[in-house]
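User: Predict the structure for this protein chain, please.
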Amino acid sequence: MDTRRLLSSTVLYGVANIAVMAVGGFLLLPLYTRTLSQGEFGMYVAIRANIDLLTYLLQFGLPSALGRNYFDYKKKQQQHEYVGSVALMFLVMLAAWAGVLALWGDALWQWLSPSTPAQPYLALSAAIAAASFPSAVAALWLRMEGRVMAVVGLQVGSAALLAVLAVLNLALLRTGLVGLLGALLASSALAAAVLPKLLQGRLRLAWRPQHVKATLHYALPVLVGYIAYFVLNRFSTLVLQHHVSPQELAVYGLALQLSMAVGVAANAFGMALQPRVFAAEQAQAQAVLRHAARLFTLLMLGLTGGLVLFAPELLALVGPPGYAGALPLLVLLLVANFTSTFTLISDTALLYLRRPKTSVAISLAGAAVAALGSLWLVPLLHLEGAALAVAAGLVTRMLLSHWAAAQALDYSAWGSMLGGLGALAALAALMAGLREVALPPGMATALKIFLTALAAGIALARHRYTRSCA
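Assistant: Here is the predicted structure, written as C-alpha cells:
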C-alpha cells in the first residue's frame, strides 16, 4: 500500500471533514456561544439533533448504498443509470416524509423537543435535511472518482459560505437562531447545486427493479445503522431535554460537539482507506487493514491525547465562562470517541466481506446500551449520566465490532485497543490531579508540552519497531 498517498488523502479528506463540521457548529462554535444566549444555544443543540434524525430518515441509507455499489456498475458502464435510479428512490422517500410532516410534524417535534417551538424550526430543519442528499451524492461521486481536491474544494466552499452567512446573520444582523439555520440551509444548497453540473445531463430518472434491489440490500441495513448511530450519540440529548433546562443542555451539547473532533479525524481516514480496501483482493485487503490499523492507532492516539491534555484551554477558547462545567464531560467523551479508531477498521473489514447485517447488529447493540443507559442514568445524574451512557455505548460497539472482524479475518488488535484506552484514561486522571494541584499556568502548559512530546516519541518508536518486525 502507498503510505504516502494514503496519508496525503487522509489529510485532504480531513480538511474537507473539518469544513463539514463547521456546518454542524464546530469551527464556528465560538461565534455561536458568544452571539446566542446559553438558552438559545441549548435550543440549537436540540434542533441539531432533530436535523440529524430527519437527515437519516430522508436519505434512507441511499448514499452509502450508492458508494458501495458504484464500482460494480462502473465496470458495466452503467453508473449514470444507477445514480438516476437512486435519485428517484430519494424523491419517493422525500414525498412520503413530506406528507408525514405535514400531518403530524408539530406533534412529533413537541414530543422530541418540548422546550423548543416547532415553528419555524421544523420547516427549516426539514429543508436542511432534504438538501443534504444531493450534497452528499455530489461529494460521494467525486470521492469515488478519486478527485480528492474537488471534494475538498466543494466542502470547503460550502463551509466558507456558512462562515460568511453566519457572521452576517449572527454578528451583524442579529437574526439569532433563525439566521443561523438559514446559513446552514444556504451552505447545504450550494453543495447540492453542484450535482447537476457533475452529471452533465447524463442523469436519467428510471425505476429499475435490479437497481432498487441492489440498493435496498445495502440501504436498509445502513439506515438501521444510522438510526443506531443516532441513538448511540444523540438519544441522550433527547432524554436530557425532558430533565434539564436549555441552559444546561447547552453545556452538554458543547462538550459533545467538541468531542466529535475525534470522529471527524477517524472518518477522514476512513474516506481514504475504504475505496482501497473495497477495490482489493482479499489477501491484499488484509495487508491494507493491518498496515492501516497500526498507522491509524498512532495518529488517533496522538490526536486524542493532545485534546485531553489541552481540554481546559480548548473549552475556554470556544465557550464563555458559563460553559466551564463541560470540562469533565468533554474529557470523558473524548476518551470514549477514541474507540471510533478501531470500530472504523473492523467495520471496513465487515463491509468488505459483504456482511453489513453484522455491522448493523453491532451498532444496534451499542445503541441499545446507550439508550438504556440514558433512560437509567440521565434522570439520576443528568449531564454526567448522559455522557456515561454515550461512553458505554461506544465502548460496547468497539468491542463487539472488533470481535466480529477478528472472527472473519486473521486480524486482531486487542492489545493496541486496550493499551490506547488505558493510556488515555491514565492521562485524563493525571490531568485531573494536576488541576487539583493548581500549578501556575506557564508551568502547566510546559508540562503538557513535555508530556505530548514524550508520548509522541514513544509511539513513533513503537511504530517503527512494529514495522521492522513485520
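The chain has one domain: 3-469.
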